[in-house]
Amino acid sequence: MAETRYILFLLDEQKYGMQLTKISSIEEVYNVVPIPVGVQYIKGIIHLRNTVIPIYDLKAKFGMYDSSMSSTRQLLIAETHGMSIAFEVDQVLGIMDVPETNIKEMPPVVRNEDTGCLESVLKIDSVTDGNADIVISVNIDKLMSDSEFEDVSVALESPETEED
Q1: Quick one: which of 87, 63, 85, 76 has its CA closest to 151?
Q2: Angle, alpha carbons 105-111-116 (nearest 5°)
Q3: What are phi and psi of 140, to 5 degrees?
């Protein structure tokens, strides 16, 4: 039976997942520099391994109030649209192999322009109590439009974001 590997994470108390093949590393949140890039949901930038990386605010995208200033926040570093981008999450839960039979298409009733990044619904069997958790899979390639990705790329190339 075919399986897909997902990295699972929390935003508030909801579990989400991203395909592991899209994620290059997990980092701690540190020294975020806010910048006005003109693209919605970009929180700022970090300088990581000699690369300037924009931070995407998933909570803002999903309409969640950012109530926690938790020290456990982490960044999922991914490659999409020819650039590295960091996704801020409350906590990384781990990596799971999800059987194809436990990956269901997102119901049409919740699909619209704003939710196009919600890829599928995952049924994750809990090892502690035997119950199944429902996890929403996020497609990072669809979080922004092509033009928004281009705007971020151009903003990162501007002199204001370069180090002296």
Answers
A1: 85
A2: 90
A3: -65, -25
According to DSSP, residue 136 is labeled E
Which tokens in the block code for residue 30? Answer: 């540190």
Quote the CA–CA distance of 1 and 95 in Å, as a whole number: 18
Determine the distance from the C-alpha atom of residue 74 to the mean position of all C-alpha atoms in its chain, rounded to a whole number. 10
The mean predicted confidence, pLDDT, of the chain is: 82
Q: Which residue's entry shows tokens 């990384």?
A: 92
Give CA torsion, residues 141, 146, 148, 153, to 10 deg.
Answer: 90
Q: pLDDT higher for 35 or 86?
A: 86
C-alpha 86/C-alpha 118 separation (Å) is 18
The rounded distance, in Å, linking the Cα atoms of 51 and 128 is: 40
* Residue in the block written with tokens 């839960």: 93
pTM for the whole thing? 0.82
- Coil, strand, or helix at residue 88? strand
The kind and range of the H/E element at 156 are helix 146-157
- Cross-sheet strand order for the sheet of 83-89: 23-28, 74-80, 83-89, 51-57, 42-48
